[in-house]
Specification:
This protein is an alpha+beta fold. Helices cover about 35% and strands about 25% of the residues. The chain contains 6 helices and 5 strands, in the order E-H-H-H-E-E-H-E-H-E-H. Strand 2 and strand 3 (about 60-70) form a beta hairpin. The longest helix is centred in the C-terminal third of the chain and has 15 residues, at about 100-115.
């Protein structure tokens, strides 16, 4: 395995990120590489928001992982700032290599650097392997999440 770099995503990385988002049974139903313009529009919004950190993991010049970290100031918990980890994906060739742990550790370090007191994430109920992974890293399934499609 070559050296790993975790860095901000660029426009050129979007096709590889979308491919990873689509590379599982859930993502295959939601994502499409046929039309990148919605992703590029979303990326433009993300890249201009200082509370959004979309990063890629690059090994040997190839994008092999990604995640989005959102910093959320709040009033609850005595005005605590929290972070939300979303869209964690690891390229199929890299799964089981420890890359996911490295990405989450990056997100935890960045959350601390940003003054966060709490890190949260959600994971689809069907992603049991991911649940075990997050629990191994110290996360607990302490809440029930809800979503409403608009």
């Amino acid at each position: 395995m070559g050296d790993l770099e975790i860095r901000p995503t660029t426009t050129d990385d979007i096709p590889a990120v979308v491919a990873m988002l689509a590379d599982d049974p859930l993502g295959a139903q939601r994502e499409s590489l046929d039309e990148l313009s919605p992703y590029l529009t979303a990326f433009e919004r993300l890249s201009t928001d200082p509370n959004q950190h979309l990063v890629v993991a690059v090994r040997d010049g190839r994008v092999v992982g990604t995640l989005q970290l959102t910093i959320v100031p709040g009033l609850s918990r005595r005005g605590a700032t929290r972070s939300i980890i979303e869209g964690v994906r690891i390229h199929g060739d890299e799964r089981g290599s420890g890359l996911g742990t490295q990405l989450i550790e990056w997100a935890l370090d960045e959350s601390r650097r940003q003054g966060c007191h709490l890190v949260q994430l959600t994971s689809d109920k069907t992603r049991t392997d991911a649940h075990r992974f997050y629990e191994r890293l110290g996360f607990s399934a302490s809440h029930t999440g809800f979503k409403l499609r608009l």
